[in-house]
Every structure is written in C-alpha cells, then in structure tokens.
Amino acid sequence: MRIAHPCRSLISAANSHSHRIVSILSFPISRSLTTTTTQTTLTQAPPSAPTTMASESDNLSTLPVANGNVVEDEKFGFRRPEMFTENLAGTVGAYDRHVFLCYKSPEAWPSKVEGSESDPLPKLLSSAVKARKNDIALKTNVTVYEGSEGTEFSDGDVLIFPEMIKYRGLKESDVDSFVEDVLVNGKPWASGVQEVFTGSHVFVCAHGSRDRRCGVCGPVLIQKLKEEIESRGLKNQVFVNACSHIGGHKYAGNVIIYSPAPDGKITGHWYGYVTPDDVPALLDQHIEKGEIITHLWRGQMGAAAEEGGKEDEHKLPKGDSKKNKKKKHEENGTQSKKEEVSGCCQGVNGFSCCKDGSLDQNGVIEKNLNETVAHEKKEQGKLSSWMGSWEQSDVLTAVAVVGAVATVAVAYSFYRRSG
C-alpha cells in the first residue's frame, strides 16, 4: 500500500504574497487524466473525481511549485502537461554495468559533459569505454555524478555497479589503464586501491543545462529525498546524489535506485515521472520492502529493452510484486484446477529467468520418449552387431555342415531299407 506524505511547500513561509500569487494562478479545475499511449485529456470534474492511475502524484494541482515559480513549473516542472501521458515500462536501453564518475556539480556541467573539451576527464573516460566496447564483456553505461556535501566523494572517484566497488582519484593520464584493467580484463586496477561500498544508492538526474525539465525537477526531488531519509534515520544506509543525463528528459523526474539484495546481488531500477509525493514510496515500498512501483517503473539493469516492458514479471529479491502475490493465492485456493504456474528468479547481473511449470511436464514426457527410442535403438544395434559378426566363411561352413548331415541321413535311410 502506498503511504502518502504531504510535501513541504517549497515557497518560503515568510513570503505571504507568493502564496496569494500561487492561489490566483492555480488552475481552477482539477485534472482528471485519461491516459493513452500518446496523449492526456483534461476534463472538468469535481475535486473528488477519480483518476485513471492510482497515484497521489496524478493530482497535479496538489504538487508543490518547483523553485517557487508557477510559470516555470507549468512548463518544466511537475505540473507540465506531458506528465503521466506515456507508458514508462521498456524505456531503458539494455545494459549490464553502470560506471559513475564524480565530477564537479550540476551547475558546472555543460550540456554534454561527457563530450566537453573543457572537461577532459569525463570525456576521456566516456570515449575510452566507447572505443573498447567490443573488448568489454558487459555493456557499460557511463554517467557523471556530484559528490554531496558531508560525504567522502570527490572529483575523480569512480563507483561501479553491480560490482559495488569504488576507486578514488582517477586522473586523465590513468583512464586507459583503468579501462583496460577493470572494465576489459575484470581485474583490480593496478594504479589504484579497490574499495567495497554498501547501502542503497539513489541517483536523480539534475542536468539542467542538458534539459530544463531535469534542472527544475531534479533538485526538488533530491531535497525531498534527503529530508525523508533523515526523518527515517537512514542517512548511513541510503545515499542520494545528483547525476548527469541518463536518457528520457521527458520523463523527468528521473530516478535510478541501486540496492543490494539479501543474496548480495545488486538490482538497478529506473523510475520516471517521479514527483515529491512519490518519494516516501520509493523509500518505504522500493528500498525497504523490495516492491516495484509499477506505474513509475521504466526498466532495470541487466534486462533487454523489450524485456524491460514486462514490469509484472520482475520483482526485487526482498519482496514479491503484487502480481506474484496474487498468483500464490490462486495456487493455494485452486489446487484441483490445472493451470500454468510461472516462477521467476533474479539471475546474474539482474537478468530475470522465468520457468513455466507446464513446460516441465512436457519435458518429462519428451525425456521418457527419448529414453524409450534410445533403448530400442540399442537393442537393434546389438542384433545388428551379432549378425554383422558372422563372416562369409562362417556362413559357408554352416551350409556345408547342414549338407553333410542331410547326406548322412539319406544314406542311413537307404541302408535301413536294404537291410
């Protein structure tokens, strides 16, 4: 169950005039979203009218105003018309590893920080990974992140998921050796010290110079996440950082969560259209209970793009998704009814492998049939081998013996008659 927490207003309480402006400019109608794959229809409805998507964030009129600017928020923030107009599942490209490079802050990032001549370190790392992509076994994404205040992250530090390892102080002159050792050969970096880190790590796209929507939504979400994390006493368990462009500006706010499972494997789930109202659910439902928030879910690390669209077949190792819970209930309540039952497991690097119970039965039948045919062939092989062992000379000898016996029998018959 989603727990809705009221968002704290981002408008200063001391500025009472701003409150009046917001009231005047706010839309007088509630927005009832009729969602299709391409558009959203706005209709006049009473405040209590239900929406087509069960989410607190769907009621755009109740969301906080980003940066205290109503006009900007209507165009780039959480109230923009494109919010919740598309199905998000399957909007993440396939990848198996994510490398984050700590470098400056969002305010200092150019539009394409990984290709900027004035920022050689991100450019060198991104270019080196692209140049060696055929030599790197795992498809690897490279993203820049900001070292937050009060943390030990600094420029040049590298975080690698799902390995959960960290290297400090990567320099421009070391990029090639780092890529060769760590990403291509899968070995510890000869020029650095490998460290292991833990916890859940949340990355929020706040790359405003690349797209204004991320620049407006990202900082608000980061602030809300930090407030909720602190209120829950999770500062040493959940870490939040701003990151550069990850793809899908129109889905802002964009959030990636990397969390360790009980078996030690790491899951990487992407969310879009995230608003401050959704932050409590990200912490309580996703990180704490291991449940995916399906209507915001874009995809995950380790799954192909077409597989990423099947959100109902994916679950975090910590808990069952709603669909899997329903399947278990049906199995317990209808044992006499034959049905196909599917079970999912989390594979290496986040791959999901599904096994169909009906296929198991067919497999057993096919196996028995194959064993029977093999046995018959074996017996036929023995007969053929026995027949084949008779040489031509053996056959002739047998014929001669039979002929001799017949001759003796005929001679004996004449002898009896003559006697």
TrEMBL record:
Locate the compositionally biased regions of type Basic and acidic residues: 307-322, 329-339
The source's domain of life comes to: Eukaryota
Q: Where is the composition biased (Low complexity)?
A: 37-52
The record's listing under InterPro entries reads:
Aim32/Apd1-like, Thioredoxin-like_sf
Q: Give the UniProt keywords, A-Z.
A: Membrane, Transmembrane, Transmembrane helix
**Region (Disordered) location:** 37-61, 303-339
CDD domains linked: TRX_Fd_Sucrase
Ranges annotated as spanning the membrane: 395-415
A Pfam match is Suc_Fer-like
Name this polypeptide is given: Altered inheritance of mitochondria protein 32
State the species of origin.
Quercus lobata (Valley oak)
